[in-house]
């Protein structure tokens, strides 16, 4: 993959992850988030929380990295399942069964669908 394609892929993947996490958080917007603990090592950290509500009591952990003096979330783990890990498996399957071009096309489609929903949805 050349640098131009890599830049496009990273941008699409970042948007996909951001939108997936935002959609998950919207699903749980009525629940309380309780702080449990945190671990920090150099420029990496993990914040452990629990989502608690009438119908829900589940672990939600955030992995962060420090870049330019700011802590940024790079993964969310809901009940032991990593958002990045899930997408990595799905994307590897698309590449294995198809091609890199098909992967890029699917990422662009998902990004366009989210933009369409944001513009015309709720």
Separate helix tally: 3
| pLDDT averaged over residues | 82
Query: What letter string, H or E per element, gives the SSE order?
Result: HEEEEEHH
| Percent of residues in β-strands | 25-35%
> Which consecutive residue ranges, at least 5 long each, have pLDDT under 50?
none
- Summed up, the domain count is 1
The CATH first-level class comes to: Alpha Beta
Shape: globular
Determine the N-to-C terminus distance: 38 Å
Which structural class matches the secondary elements?
alpha+beta
Compute the CA-based radius of gyration.
Answer: 16 Å
Total number of beta strands? 5
List the helices and strands and how they pair.
Elements: H1 3-27, E1 32-41, E2 44-52, E3 57-67, E4 70-78, E5 81-82, H2 83-97, H3 100-120
Helix pairs in contact: 1-3
